[in-house]
Amino acid sequence: MTRALRPAARILLLDPHGRVLLFRFTPSDRPPFWCTPGGAVDPGESYAHAARRELREETGLDCDCGPELFQRHVEFITIEGVPVSADERYFLVRTDAAEIDTGGHTALEQRVMTRWQWFSQAALAAHDEPYFPEDLAEILDQMEATA
């Protein structure tokens, strides 16, 4: 299967309690799953600029996303049904906001990103639906250990 290359910026958005924000996706072709804010890098855009744009569009927060934390390569099928090989770059953002503004969501996001929730590490461990990245709890543990 030929996969499209997809550069993407992902955000680990943490509240003052260290909980991470995830969106619940309900696509028509697979079971629901949860994912961090973020998305594809537009042509000519840097990963850092994409992270800030995606954060603003998906949460209403407009702030610097700081330096890139880590990179990973994953393969998946997008909500639009496109098989991709994604070069994902992750950024950490801390916020005092308890609520987010989803008014910047596209029509597709409005249809498939039905809910959002702040997750503690314990809530992630007990959660019964898939979330991505799959090792998010371990990533948060490592970040806490080095903070």
From TrEMBL:
Short name of any one Pfam family annotated for the protein: NUDIX
Record's keyword annotation contains tRNA-binding: no
Keywords: Hydrolase, Magnesium
Keyword DNA-binding recorded: no
Nudix hydrolase domain ranges (all copies): 4-142
PROSITE patterns with a match to the protein in the record: NUDIX, NUDIX_BOX
Xref: Gene3D superfamilies: Nucleoside Triphosphate Pyrophosphohydrolase
Cofactor: Mg(2+)
Protein origin, superkingdom: Bacteria
InterPro entries: Nudix_hydrolase, NUDIX_hydrolase-like_dom_sf, NUDIX_hydrolase_CS, NUDIX_hydrolase_dom
Family, as annotated: Belongs to the Nudix hydrolase family.
Name assigned to this protein: Nudix hydrolase domain-containing protein
